[in-house]
Amino acid sequence: MLMKNIPSVKPAIIAVSRDCFPRTLSERRRRAVVEACRAKGVSLFECNVTVETEREADAALAEVKEAGCNALVVYLGNFGPETPETLLAKKFDGPVMYVGAAEETGNDLIGGRGDAYCGMLNASYNLALRNIRAYIPERPVGTAEEVAENIRAFLPLARAVLGLRELKVISFGPRPKDFLACNAPIKRLYDLGVEIEENSELDLFEAYHAHKGDARIADVAADMARELGDGNKHPGVLERLAQYEITLLDWIEEHRDGRSYVTLANKCWPAFQTQFGFVPCYVNSRLTSRGIPVACEVDIWGALSEYIAACITEDAVTLLDVNNTVPHDLFDENISGKFAYSKGDVFMGFHCGNTPSCKLVKPEMRYQRIMYNSLEPGKEPDITRGTLEGDLAPGAVTLFRLQSTADAQLRAYVAEGEVLPVATRSFGSIGIIAIPEMARFYRYELIEHHYPHHGAVAFAHIGNTLYELFRYLGVTEIGYNRPKGDRYPAEKPF
Q1: CA dist., res. 314 & res. 5, Å (int)
Q2: Terminal Cα-to-Cα distance of the chain (whole angstroms)
Q3: Model pLDDT for residues 37-57, shown as the tens digit of each residue
């Protein structure tokens, strides 16, 4: 499904040159980078102005702005001019990466030596002097092909940065009783450039009823039926769900207030079922599949994390509880000896039914079993209908979360793993997830640093991009699943 709620990145490259080095050296090397990018399928706008002075920096920025570029590569084709090259990042309204040129041949180290290896040190120093945030990759100085690969890796990071700058999180609360787990200060949202609009569940209830009889309901319900196919086990609830989907989409358009992108963090229990007459999980999954993540249980930072994953992967994402252990008999029968994981490496990631259908094996419209037991015991399910259930599709995943702590400090964790092709024998949107050294990571990162039970899940390995993104955003503490022998600070040495 088309992801409509994330930015498109149009990068530009500006070559800089120190006036005591040949300008033509930077220009020739810049053209080689553009050609290498083209060979990799990366479209890169080549600025014709080579920057040696502050006036040329302004002229170059005017050219890339006129071209509609929203991400910038500052390329040190030679040593580079410290002040003009730094002002490029200060004045450019978007994410900026700095890279430099490696020397090409031992046969041209007199007139053709550029010294960008040295120049990158000065660029970094001057960026710090001016408190300018810019992205410098792990190996910033390279051949044209290596720089092109750095640029390709920069684009998902740039997409996430651009998305956050134009994002509004809309929430409908308050949180359920005795559910402080996903509560977190919103101050750091503003530091990231994100806006927040907090609403009452009653506001949503009023808007939902205002859409009764909406002419669009039949078409949306029919689209739901087409998506579900044979998995449509409760067709009688589709009109209610369609009315709710239209309500959320209209609210987004009426309340975005100039923001380009929106994500949602919504109340979904306990009064939701009795008043709305359904559970919202399937609608949440549908919006998430379009790049509008909807986090359960008013989890604002969970919604933000999901949105980051959507920007990076340009794919559907989900939010799961780090939920339950894998029973010994299931592990022994289906995992032990078949996969290179120990019992401590696996767990089940679960939520009631919010994962997009494209990420589930045989998705089916079901009912919320936990709520059913208290609201409709022994009856035909009615108000608890609306979950989308199935085992997660096997493959690579990244579990992560960006979180503001209780004292408004940014923390994050990232762990790569995989969904195993093993039946869960359970309910909800659920999968058996294997992460190396998960048991230690669970105790000494997630519990030790007081993370809530919700984690964002990307269906790809994006740990490297997330780590670089969080550093770019100013996160200083980024946890990860440490390999065996790499002790956590709080882990016992005995």
Answers
A1: 10
A2: 51
A3: 999 999 999 999 999 999 999
Tokens encoding 28? 């020739």
What angle (nearest 5°) sits at the alpha carbon of residue 183, between those of residues 424 and 261? 85
The model carries a pTM of: 0.95
β-pair type (71-76, 96-101) = parallel
Q: Distance between CA atoms of 422 and 337, rounded to whole angstroms?
A: 13
Decide: 298 and 272 in contact? Cβ < 8 Å.
Answer: no
Which residue bears the tokens 């700058």?
165
d(CA 319, CA 212): 30
- Beta bridge partners, 39, equal none
CA-based nearest residue to 322, from 456, 427, 459: 456
Cβ count within 10 A of residue 110: 6
| Closest to 228 in 3D by CA, of 32, 89, 385, 102 | 385
pLDDT value, residue 417: 98
Residues 193-236 pLDDT 10s:
999 999 999 999 999 999 999 999 999 999 999 999 999 999 99
pLDDT at 406: 84
